Amino acid sequence: MSNSSNNNRPLLEVKGLKTYFYTEDGVVQAINGVDFTIQPGQIMGLVGESGSGKSVTSLSIMRLLSASGKIVAGQILFGQEDLTQLNEQRLLEIRGNEISMIFQQPTSCLNPVFRIGDQIAEAILTHAKISKTEAKRQAIEMLRTVGIPDPTKRAEAYPHEISGGQAQRVMIAMALATKPKLLIADEPTTALDVTIQSQILDLMRNLRSEMGTSILLITHDMGVIAEMCDNVAVMYAGQIVEYTDVISLFDGQLHPYAEGLLAAIPVLGLVQKHLAVIPGSVPNLVDLPPGCKFAPRCPYARDLCTASEPRLYPAKPGHLVRCFMRDPETAQHWAGVQRATWQFGGDEVLVPGEQGTATSQDQVALGVSDRDITFTDQGLSLEE
């Protein structure tokens, strides 16, 4: 996949973005220093587990945070304007017009008491000085564009009268009615069957090729990333831990988290006794661990990883990674280390041990009292 524009100026450039939520339990550091760019006509993927900060990143770009959320640092440059500094009037002109968003759970985003055609027409009328009749005609045409059968009839239907796949197409039609420069798609294929997923993805590819629309595609599905994206950013605990083109990511992941995500994908035709899994879970964003945020779950972690936070470093041209193991200043501490097999029970949490080992905090659950996880030619093994 290649970019459809020779324009070197990014359409969207996010610099040092930090978004916090101020709650009764403390400050939730949902986004903690995010940087990426999207070129005109490019599809960029944002991937990670639930709770990694993907959706909050999109809501920060759209300036649609809840009352407790606040952008505390960074810039969001759209063209030559910083979206973090714009007043509400200018945001209304951009939001839904130049930048549109497809939200998760489309049926809950559609108003149940208004007809589908009227809701799309309203989006058009908000940004275009045309008659209601013309807006309704354009709404029906957009339904036809996204592949809704009998669009004139469907425009008169209410949201509860259509399927989930059709509701997703309606949301796409609404988002694209104003021909935006940037489309943010937040889990656009969630809860859809495989056939409808394929149709939605084909539709988005056609929109990129026919309209030149740039797309920020948010998903946890690595298969969708491989099929759709030019570049991909892997997020973890509110930070981007790996950022490169999609081919480089699948050819050779540099961050342990990205490695674990891809290792956990079952391989068709390969029979395995145990599926690979990333141990533990995403950390509490109110009380983040010191140093590398992935260290408590990382089979490669060493004492260095919890002593300080790694930088996002260009380990290869165009390939950024946030990991001490790949940083030339510290990489020598991992000399000779073999690739992990990611064969864990799933609930244990790893802590850095001595001499490059990783010892389980939950030894009772593992049944491996006083044993260490060490690296071998075959990956990870347990030794007395």
What's the arrangement of secondary structure elements?
Layout: E1 12-23, E2 26-38, E3 43-47, H1 54-62, E4 69-78, E5 81-82, H2 88-94, E6 99-102, H3 106-109, H4 116-127, H5 132-145, H6 151-155, H7 164-176, E7 182-186, H8 194-211, E8 214-219, H9 222-228, E9 231-236, E10 239-245, H10 246-251, H11 256-263, H12 303-307, E11 313-316, E12 319-321, E13 350-352, E14 358-360, H13 363-366, E15 372-376, E16 379-383
Parallel strand pairs: 3-8, 3-9, 6-7, 7-8
Antiparallel strand pairs: 1-2, 1-4, 4-5, 9-10, 10-12, 11-12, 13-14, 15-16
Helix pairs in contact: 4-5, 4-7, 5-7
Q: How big a fraction of the residues is strand?
A: 15-25%
Largest sheet: 8 strands, mixed
Structural class: alpha/beta
Query: What is the C-alpha radius of gyration, as a whole number of Å?
Result: 23 Å
Q: Tell me the number of helical segments per DSSP (H or I, 4 or more residues long).
A: 13
Q: Could you name the CATH class of the largest domain? A: Alpha Beta
Secondary-structure element sequence? Answer: EEEHEEHEHHHHHEHEHEEHHHEEEEHEE
Cα distance spanning the termini: 49 Å
The CATH superfamily title of the largest domain: P-loop containing nucleotide triphosphate hydrolases
* CATH architecture annotation name of the largest domain: 3-Layer(aba) Sandwich
Major beta sheet, strand line-up: 6-7-8-3-9-10-12-11
